[in-house]
Write a structure and sequence with these properties.
267 residues, alpha/beta, Rossmann fold, 7-stranded parallel sheet, 45% helix
């Protein structure tokens, strides 16, 4: 039997990058997938986001693996669009077993030059967004007396980052939510963990590089400072970690932070 046979996973920011890799990895192991994404370019930050075409191609890939896929377009800041996606998932599958809170943004800004829009967008997408999604999915997990929530934080959710005060604050906040939710939801057999990658080779890095006037490789090498001789990790590395944490192999793991940093935090 496959690891996630008869399981349903709800993934935000699913169109490309880490979300897409996790969706395909879980589907390969038997999970049906609800793929949620804003699927359009936002005013901030300046890099490219997932698209509707990518969501449709993800659905096709999942279905080619013999699994079911539901796609939903919406913004994690908009509680109505999140609610519509959760309702759609419950109508189709009747439950949600796994939540991967992955949708997020990153951009540089000096504290004295940061605009209200930059601060509010970062906090609302990276911190309020996961809260919005979780608070609508948790009642279904409580009813089932089972569930796993995996919050995609960052190494910056465990340390500080230069010209990243808004991003760092949002990711530390997500680490705190993980701790609080793990305590609150343990009586319902719902596990909550956070993961903390170093830089990941996704379209986000392309945008950051463009803003810095450097190539993606140059900006990754300059900003990451990983101990291992790699500028970043791959989305598939994140998927491997999520697979473990969502599985019964981690059945007693909750409230913990899992670092995928190529040694960055040891430097």
């Amino acid at each position: 039997m496959l690891e996630f046979e008869k399981k349903v996973a709800f993934i935000t920011g699913a169109a490309h990058g880490q979300g897409r890799a996790v969706a395909l990895s879980l589907a390969l192991q038997g999970a049906d997938i609800v793929a949620f994404d804003v699927a359009k370019k936002l005013d901030y930050p300046a890099y490219e986001f997932g698209t509707g075409e990518e969501l449709l191609s993800l659905k096709e890939e999942i279905e080619s693996l013999g699994r079911k896929a539901v796609i939903a377009v919406g913004d994690v800041r908009d509680i109505a669009s999140v609610a519509a996606a959760v309702d759609k998932a419950i109508l189709e599958f009747g439950k949600i077993d796994i939540l991967f809170n992955n949708a997020g943004i990153c951009a540089y800004a000096e504290i004295d030059k940061m605009t209200d829009e930059e601060w509010n967008s970062m906090i609302d997408i990276n911190l309020k967004g996961p809260f919005n999604v979780a608070r609508l999915i948790v009642p279904h997990m409580k009813k089932a007396k089972s569930g796993v929530i995996i919050n995609n934080s960052s190494v910056m959710g465990l340390r500080g980052g230069n010209r990243l005060s808004h991003y760092t604050a949002s990711k530390w906040g997500l680490t705190g939510l993980t701790k609080a939710w793990a305590i609150e939801l343990a009586p319902y057999n719902i596990r909550v963990v956070s993961i903390h990658p170093t830089g990941v080779n996704t379209p986000m890095n392309d945008g950051l590089a463009a803003l810095e006037g450097a190539t993606p490789l140059e900006i990754a090498e300059r900003s990451a400072g990983n101990l291992l001789p790699v500028p970043w990790v791959e989305s598939q590395d994140v998927a491997h970690l999520v697979n473990y944490l969502a599985s019964d192999k981690a059945r007693y793991v909750t409230g913990s932070q899992f670092v995928l940093d190529a040694g960055l935090l040891s430097v």
